[in-house]
User: What shape does this take?
Amino acid sequence: MPIWNPKYETMSREELEKLQYLRLKKTLELVYQRVPFYQKAFKEKGIEPGDIKSLADLSKLPFTTKEDLRQNYPFGLFAVPLQEVVRLHSSSGTTGQATVVGYTRNDLETWSELIARTLSCSGATANSVIQIAYGYGLFTGGLGLHYGAEKLGATVIPISGGQTKKQVRIMVDFQTTVLACTPSYALYIAETIEEMGIKPEELKLKAGVFGAEPWTESMRRVVEEKLNIDAIDIYGLSEVMGPGISSECLQKDGLHIFEDHFLPEIIDPHTGEVLPDGETGELVLTTLTKEAIPVIRYRTRDITSLKREKCPCGRTMVRMAKVSGRTDDMLIIRGVNVFPSQIEAVLMDLGQTEPHYQIVVDREGSLDTLTVLVEVSEQMFSDKVKGLEELEKVISRELESNLAVKAKVTLVEPKSLQRSEGKAKRVIDKRNL
Ligand code: DLL
Assistant: This one.
């Protein structure tokens, strides 16, 4: 499979580290001179850009958080005048006030380059027909993928999210080969394909580039089987750039971080200590080439680990494990830590239900309760009540043994749970209402 930019993507570690260091120095000088927030934060730590003498010194620098972006809303962390900013995007702001990010012309060029790499990782080429069903607008998914797909030279269908039947018609009529959307939306599209009676041979789909929300290996198997494709995990966040920060290759064994543009670290989320390769913790990213809004040691809240072993695909860039969740996604149920992804894995591995579920957390008196709603097939739902009760017990037992906490399972009618056209909302936590 062709690598989009072998010069960088297959660089030796020694060469790469030299480049990273030069770019880091430049970025640090830039933010120190231009962004009062960073100058103040560095001074508080008693540090100047000149004190950073190697990549290992990175850990001396302060972290940046989403809260810092919020407090400097809208443009306080920009390192260039607005005149040089040619595009703005904003994060969804589901967990508080939205944040705004900007891009210079060079930033947009870099972004397109990294999306072209991402798409090549999935096997896409200039001959591909790419249907972009991520939302267009302030969300970085749609436009981010769009310009990278054009740079690749592919044929782009800028359909955005929603209008699912139309998505399917277009997929058939325009002979789409690559689908770009969230994994939960891919599942909804797959279900709609079945409902519309479209036969697999009418589709030309080869790959999907899915991201913007956590999804498990078990979910990957379901989506790949339903759509008969390679489902590739792609990762990014608006504060650092958007999609295009890392991508799986067809080995599907970790996401290559485009390290010539981003410097990754894994930290213990409680102590802030940097953890060695292989250990799981919070991903922290420093941008190395961004102009409009460079970020230093940005705490992503995403949980993963890094591995540097050589990948059979030939790329030398470090790989991060599939993100298993966010530090702030973790549910604490009667003192036990539970991640939605653990529940997803149990359900998909059992494989006796449909892949649509919702998690409801509530409180009865002083006790937390965990209920998992999961859809079953038409046939199973019309079967005897006893069969359903049995299955509820089986799933409940399996969840309990995996999560170490009691979970009530309620099987629900097919198609009764809300479908997602973008980021799925898996958890309803009634305790905070
Ligand atoms: O979701 C950017 C994006 C668009 C990535 C399209 C991939 C594809 P935000 O809206 O700022 O940006 O949300 C970023 O989404 O911190 C993760 O928690 C989560 N996330 C993104 N990609 C993945 C992934 C876009 N592949 C937040 N696996 C991040 C798990 C992901 N979580």
In short: The chain has a mean pLDDT of 96. The longest strand covers residues 367-375.
